[in-house]
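Data card: per-record layout.
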Amino acid sequence: MSAVEDTLIVVKPDGVKRGLVGEIIGRFERKGFAVKRVQMLTMSKPQAEEFYSVHNAKPFFGELVSFITSGPVVGVVMSGRDAVATVRRMVGATKSWEAAAGTIRGDFGLGLTDNCIHASDSTESFTKESAAFFGKTLG
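The structure for this 139-residue chain is written out next.
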């Protein structure tokens, strides 16, 4: 049997603005994931820089930070079997035009940055990103 683990999704400003929060979270709940924590906020620039720190040397870092801080986002900690890998498959390719139909980005994404959702790509990323999003006292 597969291990139960936690992962983080963040519905980005474009997804919030378009009213897709419930639809996106609902897809994961229908798959069988449990919602452990939910928070809506507008990320500060320092918070976003910490959140995306793995990309800080890349040319698109500034665009990522600018976009994620442009409006409210909704962070959700999900729990379930093989959560990281399964959620990533459900989210789809980063470039929404390459994401398969039926994935969140394939169905709702409009571009590269405005692809509606972020999802942790490993348990290590979950730990770092959730601390940056929710604060150091994730429980």
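Known properties of this structure: The chain has one domain: 4-134. The radius of gyration is 14 Å.

See the next section for split statistics.
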